[in-house]
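Researcher: We plan to redesign the surface later, but first we want a full-length starting point. Tokens attached.
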């Protein structure tokens, strides 16, 4: 782009940011939608308001080959927002980018495996963090953003702020978790954060990349071959509570799900459900009267 085009792009980009803030988008959404405009602008080296249908098809075809579908969806939604609110144009080509509908069943650790993972974690901050994610069913970002003001020791509740969709919720805090959090906090005594970064007087929470790397290492040490991420501890929390007999409505509140259908998916992960299905399948095949061939 020449200097005039760069000035025009900077104006459009700033308007995009203003519109995102005016529409009440969360910081993570603003970052993602702003990145979508920067990425496509850099790809073509021209202002995004001059892109044609052919350009957009070319861009997303390239993106599909290099990025995950979660990134593609964010770019699609970010550009849709840019067209609608900044360019005042109708988004007419949404149908050309359709991520596949995939419903995966997450891997679940047993209670013993969760214990092994926490016990085998070498660094205290990660050990306590994994305990917190599992024992309170927290998302990675929810755990990282915990502050000392979120913990109410008198009621043994934790105020989870701005979860998915910007929703707050209250979750019970086990006594073991409170003791672990208190013990870890005394190692840094940060004025606000439970899990601050490593730098003295850190103003931000510890790095999520470090959390993910630590979990991968301990999974190798425990020789656990399942596909497990920090978010998997939340799945384990939900599945294990259902196995203990907790009702779906209560679990929905604990997890902060908007729809009970989302929570109901965990029923197929419980050992009880799997055992019942196994019994039914075996009962079905036991009725077969088969004479096997010699060869």
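Model: Full-length starting sequence:
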């Amino acid at each position: 782009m020449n200097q005039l085009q760069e000035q025009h792009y900077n104006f459009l980009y700033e308007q995009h940011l203003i519109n995102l803030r005016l529409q009440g988008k969360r910081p993570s959404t603003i970052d993602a939608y702003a990145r979508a405009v920067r990425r496509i602008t850099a790809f073509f080296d021209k202002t995004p308001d001059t892109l044609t249908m052919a350009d957009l098809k070319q861009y997303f075809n390239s993106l599909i080959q290099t990025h995950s579908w979660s990134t593609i969806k964010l770019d699609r939604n970010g550009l849709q927002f840019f067209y609608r609110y900044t360019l005042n144009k109708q988004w007419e080509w949404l149908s050309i980018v359709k991520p596949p509908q995939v419903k995966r069943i997450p891997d679940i650790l047993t209670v013993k495996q969760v214990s092994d993972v926490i016990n085998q974690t070498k660094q205290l901050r990660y050990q306590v963090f994994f305990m917190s994610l599992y024992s309170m069913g927290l998302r990675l970002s929810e755990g990282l953003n915990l502050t000392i003001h979120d913990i109410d020791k008198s009621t043994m509740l934790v105020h989870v702020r701005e979860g998915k969709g910007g929703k707050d919720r209250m979750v019970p805090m086990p006594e073991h978790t409170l003791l672990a959090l208190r013990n870890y906090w005394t190692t840094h005594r940060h004025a606000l954060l439970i899990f601050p970064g490593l730098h003295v007087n850190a103003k931000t929470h510890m790095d999520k990349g470090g959390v993910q790397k630590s979990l991968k290492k301990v999974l190798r040490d425990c020789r656990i071959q399942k596909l497990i991420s920090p978010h998997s501890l939340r799945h384990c929390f939900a599945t294990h509570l259902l196995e203990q007999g907790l009702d779906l409505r209560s679990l929905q509140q604990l997890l902060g799900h908007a729809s009970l259908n989302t929570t109901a998916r965990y029923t197929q992960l419980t050992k009880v459900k799997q055992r019942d299905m196994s019994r039914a399948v075996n009962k079905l095949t036991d009725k077969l009267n088969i004479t096997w061939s010699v060869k």
